[in-house]
Amino acid sequence: MGCGFCGAALPNIVATLVVDCVVKPVGRRVDYVRRFHDNVEKLLEKKRELADARDRLLHKIEDAKNRLLLIENDVQNLQSRADETLSDMGTLEEEIQLNKRCVNWCPNWSWRYQLSKKAMKKIQDISELLDNFGQLGPVGYRDPTALPTIDFLCSEEFVVSESSKAAFNQMIEALKDENINMIELWGMGGVGKTSLAREVGSLAKKLNLVDKKLNSFDKVVITTVSQKPNFERIQDQIAQYIGFDMKNEQGRRSEQELWLRLKKEQRILIILDDIWEPINLKEKIGIPIGDDHKGCKVLLTTRRQLVCRAMDCQNVVQLGCLNDDEARTLFEKKAGLDDFSDDSIKILANQIVKKCGGLPIAIVPLGSALKGKTHHEWQAAYRRLKDRRLTEIEDVNEENAYVCLEASFDNLKNMETKTCFLLCSLFPEDDEIYVENLVGYAWGLELYKGMDSIKDVRSEVLASIETLKNSGLLLDCGERHVKMHDVVRQFVLWIASSRKEISFGIVETLPMDESFKHYTAISFETDQTDELPKGVGFPFTIPAWPPCMVTLAAAWGLTSTLLLSFYAADS
Q1: Which of 124, 154, 283, 315 is the most exposed place for a label (fewest CB within 10 A)?
Q2: CA torsion, points 76, 82, 85, 88, in degrees to nearest 10?
């Protein structure tokens, strides 16, 4: 029985082996040859799909890098595999084209079989790659070590006084109190609120070093609100500190999404600098405080005490001006006076300091302006300060600052430096001004006569900027960037409007029938981005202004060379 069964099964086994080992491979080889052209067409189609997918990925990678994101490892590996596969395709396509040319003269069926087999293998590899493209997540992520942080301020920027010490200690105690979630620092413009808030922010990240029982803040965020708040810009700056992107594929994220993201931060301090009007932090920005998030605290700075009351701050801290001794010490330091200085100059210095009203923003530039000056120049400066009455200044608290800043402005040596200073006021409030933009402005305005090289103009502008920084009229805020204190900017706009010899202006709405012929430079702050003023003629057309700063230099039809700086209010 057993032998009979084996004898009957043996022919079937042999037949199966013959089919598997001989017939099927031969059939596959014939199929490869027969489907050669179809396989080649399918391969070329897959190549196009892979090239398109690779290009889309490269666009996403470029966009991520522009947003300072780090690229995921699997994304880089997928790009490398796609590049390598597309590169290998070149050699295979050359072999296929050569086979097609030879087929009518010297057909090589073995060669065609090999090429068709390679094509099918490449099709399979590309299909797997395309599947990986379809499963790909976000291409980039934020580097936690590269997130912005509050920098320590050097002692020259932070003016230590009895008032600043007291205010500093009050705010640190408020940060320690778990029942306080909103702190307000108020004081006159130019008294040093921003500098003090930054010092508090620096220490907030190291409270555990002060006292092991205290919890430090994991994140400290700072953003400027200003007189005309741009809430999208404020949201973007807050989001940047926590590694969150306010934009997604559908458009812009909502305040609620930022609110939810901030709730994930265990301990965070948000500094909102220079608030002028009460703000609903949850609805306008998306900041969770109070019962919404006990770990989130907000520090506000403002010139107006009424803001404190309207926003129900649990802790209100006032920063006062420097006392007489502190003001005199700071002024003498900036003016370069020492124990061996002329007594008559020291008497004048004491009289000038009183005019500064204890405001660092007035003391520092004026002291710097008078450094190294003669006795007669000191006398002239005091005479101008004593006789000046700025009745047109709305805020009486800022009159002293304006008088002193005007004296500092008048002491600048040349008109080119003064013009660079005036040009800075045409940028939006609290803007970090790129010096290279000022170079373009100076070039377009032919500010430096007789110079036909932009390299030479750049050198002159950089020299003017250094003079302004050394005078305390501009603040250094990074490589090739400067900033203008809001009080200084308001002073510049005031002086530009009050002096006939200075033809600079800020226009909040577009007077469409205005020719602006009497201006040297104008800054339009507006959201009307669909048309230019009728009186402005250009040898080119702009179909629509984007909601960002557009610099139009050397415009014809107004003056020989004119610079217009337009920026949208919502940019």
Answers
A1: 154
A2: -80
CA distance 74 to 56: 16
CB 50, CB 131: distance < 8 Å = no
Share of the chain above pLDDT 90, in %: 10
Q: How many domains does the chain have?
A: 2
Pairwise CA distance, residues 306 & 291, whole Å: 24
Sheet with 219-226, strands from edge to edge, namely 219-226, 268-275, 296-302, 182-186, 315-318
| pTM of this structure | 0.60
d(CA 428, CA 448): 25
CB 416 within 8 A of CB 464: yes
Q: What CA–CA distances, in Å, run from 64 to 79, 137, 548?
A: 14, 13, 21
Q: Give pLDDT tens digits for 1-38.
A: 444 444 444 444 444 444 444 444 545 555 656 666 67
CA 198 – CA 153 distance, rounded (Å)? 8
Identify whether 336 is part of a domain: no
- How would DSSP label each residue in 227-245? SS--HHHHHHHHHHHTT--
Please identify, among 297, 318, 339, the residue that sits at the C-terminal boundary of a domain. Answer: 318
CA distance 225 to 234: 7
Query: Side by side, which strands form the sheet with 433-434?
Result: 433-434, 481-483, 475-476
286 lies in some domain: yes
Rg (CA), the chain: 35
Rounded Cα distance, 328 and 325, in Å: 5
Residue 532: strand pairing partners: none
Q: Are 173 and 102 part of one and the same domain?
A: no
